[in-house]
Write a structure and sequence with these properties.
heterodimer, A: five-stranded mixed beta sheet, 26 helices, B: seven-stranded mixed beta sheet, six-stranded mixed β-barrel, 30% helix
């Protein structure tokens, strides 16, 4: 390989790789296996191994490629097979024992295994298969628009050539050769891109602050310390398309006048780190990082810094402190990092997604990007869709789509036809919205107005079986444990708030506790040092706002209608609905259910330990939750 | 500084750009409460008590970090602000023990004050509270985490002030707490117990153990005075209750220390109250019984007596000796621990009353070579600059032969601050890897006794590279060409061979020294205590002239004086060759002046030094000695020889606090008093004269030393007739202020330094020739005292005693952080002794292995003169082939081994190099 001395060489390389890939596709069958952390966790490594073994045994000339996560995590492991000249077909939930069959039928006999196939991908110039849904038409995919994640699951993230073939580094080449740094900033401002870390500050304006700040050197920092429970947007991008982030950071470095950049990635993402290291190394080899990039005279280097597992290091000043080798704690702003950041120098901190969107914005222009989404929230939003939803996974949708579309169309609704209760956006510091807010458009301002936040992309759906007090308490437990302890309102306030919530969840709530929650929350928002402390009360405040009656039921009636808070409800069998099938009796571990076959069963509340096994197994809805009548004490003992 | 217009609470204010809202408010007299903020520390923004409302800012902002900008509008006490502050206090107090009734900080607690101000009683939140055990076993600081509000003042003090970073925050959220080292005890951490953390703690979370239960803030009398340990001259505030010092704090307005102290200054004061204090005068029985001196039987036993008897006997015996053997057979030793006024009296006593110039003191043993060397190069021999400008402005420090952080800890602290806070370069040249090396840009680990070669080698490169300050050399110096010839003999390769310092390090060091400006040279005993001590000092003078670093702030020659008033004792004529203010006894003009003042003829002959007076006992030349506050058995080289001499003396008077190691040889013991029991002045290393104030009454019948000297002089002069017209012939001093008046009249550099000015708060550095003169922070700014600075051509000469097959290792000696001098005071400070309870011999890992020090760590160190047994401290502080011992513990004092080889000019012994043998003891 050669160092690329100018943009023409980059283009030549792109064309030659494309030609090579097209040739390969025309002559060789390809198997693509989703090898993101999600895929690997679901068994993709074993599947890949089985695939290679099978192919070797049969002496088949098939190219096996590991790709990043395509987003359908619920269907992992995903295996795509493409024969020369034929569409790429996706198989879902592939187990190792299915591999010989797939190879035999699809690769050897050329027959798609329709009962296992999920969909085929529509591609130009390739005749689609009959009677097989297209990937692009899947409900999960139909409303998506992939920019930040456009390469995830499509290219081999460990091969820079595949990225280059997919227009990789063209945005950088364009910026370096035909734009002044100020032009890049103007383009970013015109695009309307708002920071995807959650605060939604205009990225171009942020870059401009840093460019105008006095002091050298300047630094570009990528915040890849994704710590929200249930969020994995940044991880998937880093695993699936690391070069997009590298390219975006390099463009930012050019725009603000930086020579060095840091990627602060949590150490819990070993695969992302490994792929980033490899990608940085490859970018160096091609002269796309380091001295004199593409012969333009611009030099830029990237350094990786692993976080040590503190949630608060996602806060930019804490992140900077951590890179400096100090205890990861925020400091008051001003001065903002744009003025005094890493080692006291002007620094620009953006999220992974902001950087991965950048090359496309530069390449396709601000106009193209700003037409996507809404007027004030342009472009797309990436969400990790989790919780009580059918299609858990990673999605990218245009801003302005409603919550309902995401949950019911993309997400496929609740499993087991449970009733939707709330959706939490913005992670553990965000807020939840009730059913009445489902038609809220998903953009920075609408979500905030509705009482939640955009956050960095966590979206958790909960159904009727979730207690909102416990739900809030869960996030509060997380946030207060992750408080760095620097400022008093967050350090002690979070603890005191948690104590109130715990009291309520344990049935010891007092009528004045709701006022107490409001008092502590309001003051924490007012007085805390950083966003962590200011937003810690978010989930509590939102759930109290929309589900106040649940809180009141806990305090007044000692009743948890979701059947979550131990000792504050009891399971009862509806004798009209119960056919006496015996499933619940079999599931019961504490001999609490009695009843003759084909006769309605009854629960002995003294023996019941509220494990919920009967409730889970009853498909007829015969078991319901009622206020508890037997004293709590015995239950507590039994639970302990 | 450009200003901006801001509005605080409706008041229009001009603030300096760069100020925070808090600073601007303070300057305008507007009160904003703080907890984590401390004026001496960088702001933290952690506690949220100083939150204010700022127009156009969505959230409340901390005043301590928010910068002022044009047009800023601030509300410091709006309803929103007050509610937030109250909330923060409610939270803090909800996890705080409400034991104010028994808490030592009551009345001196920021949290308590704020709770009162905001009406927060502690019943708002009832939740989980921490109950940390109070178990840190260190002797000085009680760590009560239950009272900690996590303001992190201590963390910042440790990080930014002392620079050791022993304190940090552990864990997160509600479980965060302050811990030490790797979350262990303070003692196991890098903590040096400077107590800066205690000084800034707003509650009783960190509290001096020695003060617990001793008194309430409003019950104590606070007395400002000067520390009695090293020569830095830290201003301290003593808290006194019922005639007892119950706590010591650094005074924030102390020019040398700015509020900070070291462990000795803050926690080493209890020696003052030690039961060993001698409370009545005592004499040997033979004297009481009028018999001949005998060391046998009960003739030699001590008998307590009254002052009249003791003084009468002393005066009679000294007059007898003078009559029998002449005035020059007597000698006095002044004291670097005593007041200027007392040293002046000792000088007058020797010269006027006895009629000899045989006066000296332990400056002989520490900086006599500095005084002599600088006098030759510049014309006067003292630290040229001030602590404030050196530590505040030097771009580079050259610390050679000074273990600054242990010997002059507060200066060491301020060097660390300069390195850490403003990135100053630091070059340490020392055979040992001292603690300061951790902060050094470069450590030149040269062989002991090769300082001249090292300095010449550095100057060779500076000249070669064209970094010499030619303008300065041309305008202000002489002798450069000859000097340059000598320097040409020291190319880096040769220097590297002599010193053991790699050539590239020489180049690196020379570049920093030659190009960073201002560059300050600092040194101590590592330079002076050599047979080449004077030459070493002159080489440093050469370096500072060569680089043009004389007479400018942040530069200069900065010998660090070792004892609280060693500078003053020299200034006051406690030397055999000079009257007060360095007026030579050999000068007829000076002699006439003092003869006229004191009303009696004076000896024109310079006297003998302490390193001559004591050995001369054996020669019969010294018959009697009057020793004030010195302990030659511990401090002089070759202890065995010293003991042998003192045993043979005719008459020895010792004026002391404790029965020291010299006490067994004394005929009369006169109990003097400590620094806390008298009023007068000390002069610190930077020539600053500061008030020492009486805080407590002396124990028993002990008397201020100046009174004892006075009463002894009066008795000895009883039958003499002095010129009645001489203005200062008499001894009728009613106070040390009277003595200072006499000093003002006779010592020109002290002419303007009066008690009255000092009591008014003026801080004066000599020379201060008149009462309207502001003092002189920096010497040699325009010309040198001798006119032009003189380059001296100096050649390397090896030390007197080098290792040989019989004694194969080099011994170097010195002090340690936790002790001081002969240890008479520091060994009687309970905590200091607990931390460092015995003599330790520092030895390298390599040598320890060779000696087979596995399991057993006791060693015997022997020289040609004696031998000691002590525990070995195996460390990388000393290089292979070298051991280091201190002289704080009589049972294993380094001076049993040291050699009395003297610098020919200054007569300073070569404490830093002698040959020894080390054996492992089973």
């Amino acid at each position: 390989m050669t160092v690329l001395d100018n943009p023409e060489q980059l283009n030549d390389l792109r064309l030659s790789v494309l030609e090579h890939l097209n040739n390969r596709r025309a002559n060789q069958a390809v198997v693509l296996i989703g090898m993101g952390t999600c895929g690997i966790a679901a068994g993709a490594s074993e599947v890949a191994e089985a695939m290679r073994k099978e192919l070797a045994q049969r002496n088949l000339n098939v190219k096996v490629i590991g790709v990043g996560c395509i987003g359908m995590c619920v269907k992992e492991p995903l295996v795509d097979i493409q024969l020369p000249g034929r569409p790429r077909v996706t198989y879902a939930n592939v187990k190792t024992d299915m591999v010989p069959h797939l190879v035999e039928e699809h690769l050897v006999n050329g027959q798609i295994v329709k009962k296992l196939a999920l969909a085929q991908m529509v591609e130009d110039g390739i005749q689609p298969e009959q009677e097989l849904d297209t990937y692009q038409n899947l409900p999960f995919y139909r409303k998506q628009l992939r920019i930040a994640m456009r390469n995830c699951g499509m290219i081999n993230p460990e091969d820079i050539l595949e990225y280059i073939a997919a227009d990789g580094y063209q945005g950088l080449a364009k910026a370096l050769t035909s734009m002044e740094p100020d032009d890049v900033i103007e383009e970013m401002k015109d695009s309307g891109l708002r920071g995807r870390g959650g605060a939604g500050f205009l990225t171009g304006v942020k870059w401009e602050f840093c460019r105008r700040a006095r002091g050298t050197p300047k630094y570009v920092i990528c915040n890849a310390d994704e710590g929200d429970p249930g969020a994995f947007m940044d991880r998937s991008i880093l695993e699936g398309d690391p070069h997009a982030v590298i390219e975006g950071m390099t463009i930012a470095g050019y725009a603000i006048g930086a020579r060095d950049g840091y990627i602060y990635c949590r150490a819990e993402y070993p695969l992302a780190i490994q792929r980033l290291e490899k990608a940085i190394c490859q970018a160096h080899e091609y002269g796309l990082l380091g001295e004199n990039i593409l012969g333009t005279g611009f030099s830029f280097d990237l350094h990786l810094k692993e976080g040590a597992g503190a949630f608060v290091c996602g806060e930019e000043t804490a992140l900077i402190a951590s890179i400096e080798g100090k205890r990861g704690e925020p400091r008051p702003r001003p001065p903002f990092p744009a003025v005094s950041g890493l080692w006291g120098k002007p620094s620009n901190v953006n999220n992974v997604k902001s950087y991965s969107l950048t090359p496309q914005i530069i390449l396709n222009g601000a106009d193209w990007f700003s037409k996507i989404g809404t007027e004030k929230s342009t472009g797309t939003a990436v969400f990790a869709l989790t919780g009580k939803i059918k299609n858990t996974g990673l999605i990218e949708v245009p801003m302005g789509i409603t919550l309902r579309e995401i949950i019911y169309d993309v997400g496929g609704g609740m499993p087991r036809n449970k009733r939707f209760k709330a959706v939490q956006t913005g992670g553990p510091l965000g807020g939840c919205l009730p059913e009445s807010a489902l038609d809220t458009p998903v953009d920075f301002d609408s979500l905030t107005q509705a009482g939640a936040t955009m956050g960095s992309g966590g979206m958790i759906v909960v159904d009727q079986d979730t207690c909102m007090v416990e739900f809030a308490r869960y996030f509060l437990t997380f946030a207060s444990a992750e408080s760095c302890g620097k400022c008093v309102p967050c350090r002690i306030g979070g603890q005191r708030l948690l104590e109130v919530l715990t009291r309520i969840a344990e049935g010891k709530g007092r009528p004045e506790d709701l006022n107490e929650i409001e008092y502590i929350s309001t003051q924490m928002q007012q007085a805390s040092l950083c966003a962590l402390g200011q937003l810690t009360p978010g989930p509590v405040m939102a759930s109290l706002r929309f589900f106040r009656e649940e809180y009141e039921a806990h305090i007044r009636d000692h009743f948890c209608q979701a059947g979550v808070c131990k000792g504050m409800f009891q399971y009862e069998i509806d004798e009209v609905k119960c056919p006496g099938c015996g499933l619940c009796l079999k599931a019961c571990t504490s001999n609490a259910i009695i009843g003759e076959k084909k006769q309605p069963h009854v629960i002995n509340q003294v023996n019941c330990i509220q494990c919920g096994a009967c409730y889970e197994v009853c498909n007829l809805g015969a078991i319901h939750i009622s206020p508890r009548v037997v004293p709590l004490v015995e239950v507590e003992e039994a639970v302990d | 500084m450009p200003t901006v217009n801001i509005t605080i609470d409706g008041k229009k204010i001009q603030a300096e750009l760069g100020q925070t809202v808090l600073q601007a408010a303070r300057a305008a007299g507007i009160h904003i409460p703080v907890l984590c903020d401390h004026p001496a520390l960088p702001p933290e923004g952690a506690c949220r008590i100083c939150l204010v409302e700022i127009e156009k800012q969505r959230a409340l902002q901390p005043a301590c970090t928010f910068p002022v900008t044009e047009g800023l509008v601030v509300e410091t006490h709006s309803q929103r602000v007050m509610a937030a502050r109250k909330f923060t206090l409610e939270l803090l107090i909800s996890d705080h023990p409400l034991d104010c009734m028994t808490c030592d900080a009551t009345g001196d607690c920021l949290l308590q004050d704020l709770a009162y101000e905001y009406g927060v009683a502690g019943d708002r939140f009832k939740g989980k509270q921490h109950h940390y055990p109070i178990t840190d076993p260190n002797p000085f600081i009680q760590v009560d985490r239950n009272k900690c509000i996590l303001c992190r003042r201590c963390v910042r003090a440790c990080q930014y002030i002392n620079g050791v970073e022993a304190i940090s925050v552990f864990y997160r959220g509600f479980n965060a707490y302050i811990g030490f080292g790797a979350d262990g005890n303070m003692q196991d951490s890098p903590c040096e117990f400077c107590g800066s953390c205690v000084a800034v703690c707003p509650t009783a979370a960190l509290w001096p153990k020695m003060s617990i239960g001793k008194g309430r803030p409003w019950q104590v009398k606070k007395v400002d005075t000067i520390c009695s340990y090293c020569g830095v001259g830290c201003k301290l505030t003593l808290h006194v209750k019922d005639n007892e010092i119950i706590q010591v704090e650094g005074a924030w307005d102390g020019p040398a220390n700015r509020g900070w102290t070291c462990v000795k200054g803050r926690f080493g004061y209890d020696y003052v109250h030690h039961p060993d204090r001698v409370k009545k005068p005592k004499v040997r029985r033979y004297l009481l019984e009028g018999k001949k001196k005998s060391r046998k039987g009960n003739a030699w036993e001590w008998v307590e007596t009254d002052w009249d008897t003791a003084l009468d006997i002393t005066a009679r015996r000294m007059l007898e000796v003078r009559k029998e053997a002449g005035a020059s057979s007597l000698g006095v030793l002044a004291s670097a621990k005593c007041l200027n006024e007392e040293n002046y009296l000792m000088n007058k006593f020797a010269r006027q009353v006895i009629g000899t110039n045989n006066i000296d003191h332990c400056a002989r043993l520490c900086h006599s070579s500095t005084v002599a060397g600088l006098a030759i190069s510049f014309g006067s021999g003292a630290m040229s600059n001030s602590i404030e400008d050196v530590t505040g402005q030097a771009q580079a420090f050259f610390v050679i032969g000074s273990n600054t952080t242990e010997q002059h800890p507060v200066i060491g602290m301020r060097i660390r601050q300069a390195v850490r806070q403003r990135g100053a370069a630091l070059i340490v040249a020392d055979p040992r890897r001292i603690d300061l090396c951790d902060f050094a840009t470069l450590h030149l680990q040269h062989k002991p006794g090769t300082d001249i070669a090292l300095l010449n080698g550095l100057m060779y490169i500076i000249i070669e590279k064209g970094w010499a300050d030619e303008k300065f050399i041309a305008e202000r110096t002489e002798g450069f060409e000859e000097f340059k010839q000598t320097i040409q003999q020291y190319p880096p390769e040769r220097v590297s061979q002599i010193t053991g310092v790699p050539v590239e390090q020489l180049y690196q060091a020379a570049e920093i020294l030659g190009t960073a400006k201002p560059m300050a040279a600092l040194w101590a005993m590592g330079i002076t205590q050599h047979t080449t001590g004077v030459h070493n000092v002159m080489s440093l003078a050469n370096l500072q002239m060569l680089t043009g670093n004389m007479g400018i702030p942040g530069g200069g020659v900065n010998p660090l004086r070792g004892q609280n008033n060693v500078q003053g004792a020299c200034d006051m004529g406690g030397l055999p060759n000079v009257y007060p203010a360095y007026q030579p006894v050999a000068s007829e003009e000076a002699r006439k002046k003092f003869e006229a003042a004191w009303g009696t003829p004076l000896s024109p002959e310079p006297g003998r030094t302490v390193t001559e007076l004591i050995p001369d006992i054996l020669k019969g030349k010294t018959k009697a000695l009057y020793i004030l506050g010195e302990d030659p058995v511990m401090s002089d080289p070759d202890t065995n020889h010293v003991r042998e001499c003192l045993e043979k003396i005719d008459f020895l008077v010792l004026q002391e606090l404790f029965p020291s190691e010299t006490e067994p040889y004394a005929d009369v013991f006169l109990p003097g008093v400590s620094f806390a029991e008298k009023t007068g002045t000390f002069t610190n290393t930077e020539r600053r004269v500061q008030m020492v104030r009486q805080a407590i009454q002396p124990p028993g019948e002990a008397r201020p030393d100046w009174e004892i000297i006075r009463d002894l002089a009066v008795r000895m002069l009883a039958e003499r007739s002095l010129n009645p017209d001489a203005p200062y012939a008499g001894w009728d001093y009613a106070s040390t202020s009277d003595i200072m008046d006499e000093i003002n009249a006779l010592a020109p550099s002290y002419a303007g330094i009066t008690h009255e000015r000092l009591e008014k708060g003026e801080s004066l550095q000599w020379p201060c020739p008149s009462t309207d003169h502001p003092g002189t922070p920096i010497l040699h700014t325009k010309g040198f005292t001798r006119g032009k600075g003189k380059f001296m051509s100096i050649d390397h000469v090896p030390p007197a005693e080098l290792p040989d097959p019989e004694y194969p290792m080099v011994l170097s000696t010195g002090r340690v952080l936790y002790h001081w001098h002969g240890g008479q005071m520091s060994r009687r400070a309970k905590g200091l002794l607990e931390i460092y309870p015995q003599a330790l011999i520092e030895i390298s890992h390599e040598d320890a292995e060779k000696l087979g020090l596995n399991g057993t760590k006791r060693v015997r160190v022997s020289s040609r003169r004696g031998s000691i047994e002590a525990e070995a401290m195996v460390t990388d502080r000393v290089p292979p082939g070298m051991v280091y011992a201190n002289f704080h513990f009589p049972e294993a004092s380094a001076n049993e081994l040291t050699i009395a080889a003297l610098d020919p000019l200054a007569k300073i012994p070569e404490y830093k190099v002698c040959a020894v043998r080390v054996e492992s003891l089973k």
